[in-house]
Design a protein that fits this description.
The protein is built from 9 helices and 20 strands. With 398 residues, it is α+β, with helices and mostly antiparallel strands. The strands form 4 sheets. A 7-stranded mixed beta sheet has the order 10-11-12-13-9-3-14.
Length: 398
Amino acid sequence: MPVGTAFHERTFALCHSLNYREWSGYYTVSVYEVHHEHEYNAIRNASALIDISPLYKYLVTGRDATKLVNRVITRDISKGSIGQVIYCCWCDEHGKVIDDGTITRLAENTYRWTAADPSLRWFRQNGLNMDVQIEDISETTAALALQGPTSGKLLKSVADADIANLKYFRVTHGKIAGIAVDISRTGYTGDLGYEIWMPWEDAVKVWDAIVEKGKAFDLHAAGMLALDVARIEAGLLLIEVDYTSSKKALIESQKFSPYELGFGRMVHLEKENFIGRSALVHAKKKGLARQLVGLEITWTEVEKLYDKFGLAPQAPSQASRVAVPVYAGDRRVGKATSTTWSPILKKMIALASVDTEHAKIGTELQMEVTIEAIRLKVGATVVKMPFYNPPRKTAVPV
């Protein structure tokens, strides 16, 4: 039975749809209103407040903290300075991705590590005989994502912290409503945005202060349906949708190397030995059989197919997490894992895993669509990702 997050008494009062889902044992709002349109528009045109407390969060400390982090992840954490946040993945001994997340370097040997799946046992197993402490702070640290073009101005008005000069993927410290918070310039929307980390017991005070100031910035609480559309536009992957954790995979083809997921830039083979390194060295030499790509669906073809049935063309009302086949002619060459209509781009887009020979930008493929229970194909072109990448996302000052 799910339980409420630290913000549940506030989010429940706002959730007129009563449309919830379970996320890591917590009630999470799918959509506050009947449709997620206003929430999505807040992300892209104003400010959106998203409860991300269900993320698994770990505090790693001790003399060997850096050594442990470097042993587990594929990226070189020693290159990260204090106050920096890195996005990374970690693999099993066969070089297959277990999970991905962010690591914030709070001090020389202090890190806050987020993960989609429970990871405490894996981290502790790999920290044996090290001077390191790994604390699960998932239930003591609440988190909010404040995202959108006006989020920086809103945060400057409510937070006692240097927001104007906070660089992309950096963290600062300050207070909101007198509560000590960490504020990182990170998010899952591909837009200007921040994530605010605070003590669980003081979470509602922070929420109330942001909401009060947010009235002048057209702030909306946003749920998972709106976030799903935004993260696909940003080309950001979702575990158990766009890839399967190697710990949960039932067959070999469900396991992915970082290179196959577009995480190659996060694999630093030159650093000290880490879990999966030898397998990844071999994988890099061998080359990739498949790659993650972005697809842009040919909308005129969708219109023509619907017209044949005497129907008006229908853009999907929410992002789809159902995998569908991708073809080159009559041959299946991969699958689209996340598909959505992008309101800001006025295009239907998808994240897909396809055979490397068909992964080049500009390649013309076909994707399966179903109309009136009949499976059909429409054109889809491999395009550069992210689909949406506004300059404000990384601009300083804000």
